[in-house]
Hints:
The chain is α+β, with helices and mostly antiparallel strands. The chain is built from seven helices and 26 strands. The strands form six sheets. Strands 4, 6, 21, 22, 23, 24 and 25 form a seven-stranded antiparallel sheet that branches. Strand 17 and strand 18 form a beta hairpin. The radius of gyration is 48 Å and the shape is rod-shaped.
Amino acid sequence: MENRTKIAVSILIAVMLAIAGGVYYYVGHRMAAKASDAAGHADHVEHAQYVCPMHPFIVRDKPGSCPICGMDLVKKVAGGATGESGESAALPPGTVTLSPTQLAIANVATVEARKMPLVKEINAVGTVAFDQSRQAKVTAWIAGRIDKLNVTKVGDTVSPDAPVAEIYSPETVSAQLEYLLALKSREKMKALGIVEAANDGLIESGRQRLLQWGVREDQLEQIEKTGKPIMSLPVYTPISGIVIEKMAQAGQFVEMGMELFAVADLTAVWVELSLYEDEFGLVKPGQRVEISSKAYPGRTFEGAVTYIYPFLDKESRTVRVRVEIPNGDLALKPEMYANAVIKIPLADSLAVPVSAVMDTGKRKVVWVEMEMEVGSFEPRHVTTGMRVGDYVQILSGLEAGEKVASSGGYMIDSESQLAGGTGHEGHGASSPKQAADKKAVPTQSHQGH
């Protein structure tokens, strides 16, 4: 009986010990799991950051509001792309991913790079000038006294058909009388049947001298027909136009070659433009030019480039370009200021908005949206050409059809730097083809740029 009691007690003790061991193991395992979860959560909290979508340099370790704009801070997990879920995506180095909230707040918009016809407009200022090929001086061909002045003031209209003045010259009167005497002598010789070559030479010599003094052929015919000299020889202008300068007075004695009037034909004028060094190389003779003036709001005058001067003004660093403008109504006045637009068509070029290109001073970068990852952008270095209005030519680094951030680029760049990337100075292949080439050929790491 006593042995049975001892055996029962021993079995009871063994069962109690087994139960106690199971409880101990279960409790210990649960506590270890809780500790592990707590450590993982603490590690997650330690790496969690909250940033302002509008001011990425505002970083906090817990939720709150931006001290600058008052917006709610957005959760960001270090080592991964920023998103509302905080999950990281396996994207190329330098890629930035923005959440829908950030995209909306930063007003990020994309546009497709495409080829388009571009027309480069060069805007320049200039001055209306006389067409030098349409100017002339009226001078005295003989010495004498101005007996009559038909043009009395600047602004008078003149033409080669009407004399502008009449000059009395004793020398020309004597030359005309000698010419008439030679003609009469020849007639008498002919009547007597005498042919004298010397007399013919004298007549021709007198004729040429009168022509050199400005006597016209019709005037010589008049002298020969009437047998009388012209006492006051008329003076004519060589071109039609307007008197722009008057130097003669009635009754004035003049010397041979003295200037009497200056005449200009203003039915066509020049506009001389000043173009900078980076502009005049695009301009060629024959290109059309539109001219406007404050004197005629809304009116446009059209002309063409006729000459590009072969020297540079060292003070203004500009080259003068001559444009010829028809001016039948004399609206354009010499010395007026004018604005010019020269439109130069360019070949179809790949182009993006100017706002899409970030110029760092060392290189130019665009943010290209990943084709399969909406909201994810990678930096791409590009080479730009001419700027045409709101667009800029892309010579290399981008391909037609790729989408670039046309607004909000600085927000993307700031996000890249905040994430520990290098922003616009860091990664970024020139194009997908160059990126593939880089993968095929081992290169040095870009880390540390």
